[in-house]
Amino acid sequence: MKIEEVKSTAKTQRVSAHTHIKGLGLDENGAAIQAAAGLVGQEMAREAAGIVVDMIKSKKMAGRAVLLAGPPGTGKTAIALAIAQELGNKVPFCPMVGSEVYSSEIKKTEVLMENFRRAIGLRIKETKEVYEGEVTELTPIETENPMGGYGKTVSHVVIGLKTAKGTKQLKLDPSIYESLQKEKVETGDVIYIEANSGAVKRQGRSDNFATEFDLEAEEYVPLPKGDVHKKKEVIQDVTLHDLDVANAKPQGGQDIMSMMGQLMKPKKTEITDKLRKEINKVVNKYIDQGIAELVPGVLFIDEVHMLDIETFTYLHRALESAIAPIVIFATNRGRCVIRGTEDIISPHGIPLDLLDRLLIIRTLPYFRSEIEQIVKLRATTEGLQIEDEALSALGELGTKTTLRYVVQLLTPAALTAKVNERTIIKKEDVEEVGSLFLDAKSSAKILTQNKDKFMK
Ligand SMILES: Nc1ncnc2c1ncn2[C@@H]1O[C@H](COP(=O)(O)OP(=O)(O)O)[C@@H](O)[C@H]1O
Ligand SMILES: [Mg+2]
Question: Which reaction equation describes what this protein catalyses (predicted)?
Fold first, then answer.
């Protein structure tokens, strides 16, 4: 199994509406602070979510599942993302929407399996022979291109590494120069190079340079102790899906057509059940040898009522298996028909036997004052100014529609303000966009009232 080259395949999240959320905002006793870490109100659900986080951290949650249930716009997705923030970036968190399983190309269960494996982490500890230190010099040595022509090529690269104990100059292969460039290594950075594979890892900027005014995102690390050339415990966090991808072979055989296919779809790889079994075997061996540790993460399935009976059955079985993530579901449905059945009605559209093993967290509609607080938070996050009168108009509108609707009105309201050459959103902007864009409830009402005028 290849581990050296494993790249993270984490899905990027569509979180633009939730960028203000930084955590659950609980105090040290696990009680919700009215407004903290970007969250407002919804105290009971946040406290329950805090307990789930504790259970995950103390490894008491594997194979269990949680359901966030409540009306639209009551913060279910927001709380799930807050859970992810609380868990930190070492615990995998894989978000998906129920409808993602319906694809014309991939089997439903395959989509689920892939996401399952994205949500299971493996922490691999290896002792490796490395060269580590602060980069004091980085010089590519060029020669005339041996193939002729005018270009020059890098024949090797000279790098100086410094630790608290000494310095060493290394002459490296040009392939390592490429990895150095990929990691954007500069003099003054602390890096290590694995002796066997030549893999380069940039750890951060040496804190000797901490006073330079630089990007604030920079991470400063101390000058390494010990020798430049040494044995070092290297920790790598990957997901099972990362391993699947790194070990999958490109599809197709040797003939021209399949080669063409590969050229057109260079990233297309095939992950088979057989491959997954192989990987599980190696993973289990690593775990037995104490080299690796399993880190069950979180699979978040939003709009879970979109799943059908077949995928529910599959999920239920997968939850029983030895290696399973924690699954968090969210839904805004009450009692409804389970998809894929004729007429089996169940709470939240989830089969009873699965429902039976869920911890259910309820989210409740917000008070007007809370809606105003949240809208204000969003406005600040989006860099918008809003008058108190406008805020209160949105608050009032929010109690009649949903929080999500009024949060969404912010951007068009800011635009009308701009059209009227203002930088601050006024009540009239809110009224204007409120009459231009319908919320779901009013739209549905108009549809029923004017049934005969629409096409079927
Ligand atoms: N308690 C809260 N505190 C702060 N922002 C919230 C809260 N609840 C919801 N939001 C924000 O309101 C919007 C709608 O909430 P969302 O989580 O999408 O609702 P749901 O998933 O229940 O339909 C999002 O922008 C979300 O970030
Ligand atoms: Mg949601």
Answer: ATP + H2O = ADP + phosphate + H(+)
